[in-house]
């Protein structure tokens, strides 16, 4: 099961892949390029914005909820119309959104971090039925936001800590109790980036700087690793007609000129055919 190039456009910071279950179409972002990207067969598509954009959930066939550096907004894919939903750390000019995903209850989780990736306090917020609430703070670079199929567990990480955490959720999807350790990667030296949970409860985590996505059992045990040609693998997502295709974005960010020149696959978006069925991405309920 080797990775194939899905899209050869090189992203400075590819992130936030989302398989839209109604459109049967992959969307993803180049955060630093301020772009939303997609493709239909051989036709590449992209939309440009005035500020950093990083993650999305789907509202209906034509509309996405997109997180930017200052807001959540509804975006119509056919008309390009933007509709303000709520602000995100509007008073702090030094932050932007990062990893995000919709949960099984219809909420949307989004991480905020320093624009330069500095080790300053970041946070994870949840938007649910009109309410935006900060649910975790002191998260330097929020990543790996993903959810167990039954909606009772969420996963997340502060990437520099090199530990993926898990937290229990109540019936409305809000965290309850203390978070606990899911996977500790400090001894191996891996940096956890984005993650997605398959229908069987396994957690698939992109590892920044390691050319790979690792699959973990529900107890955290590493089961297998998939090679990704881009050095900085950033975030996986399941899609395709049978939800067995694993997509993964990558990034050029922080690579040297030599690395950029000698590894032409850096920054591209990849697909891997797997034997595992993913979860259909959950609809955001505004």
Question: How do the helices and strands line up, and which of them pair or pack?
Answer:
Elements: E1 4-7, E2 14-20, E3 25-30, E4 35-40, E5 43-48, E6 53-58, E7 63-68, E8 71-76, E9 82-87, E10 95-102, E11 108-114, E12 123-128, E13 131-137, E14 142-147, E15 153-158, E16 163-169, E17 175-184, E18 191-197, E19 203-208, E20 212-216, E21 222-227, E22 232-239, E23 245-251, H1 257-262, E24 269-273
Antiparallel strand pairs: 1-24, 2-3, 3-4, 4-5, 6-7, 7-8, 8-9, 10-11, 11-12, 12-13, 14-15, 15-16, 16-17, 18-19, 19-20, 20-21, 22-23, 23-24
Tell me roughly what share of residues is in helical segments: under 10%
Q: What's the β-strand tally?
A: 24
Major sheet summary line? 4 strands, antiparallel
Distance from N terminus to C terminus (CA atoms, Å) equals 38 Å
Strand content: over 45%
CATH overall fold name: Neuraminidase
Q: Give the C-alpha Rg.
A: 17 Å
**Distinct helical segment count:** 1
Mean pLDDT: 97
What attributes does this structure have?
286 residues; Neuraminidase; mainly beta; 1 helix; 4-stranded antiparallel sheet; globular
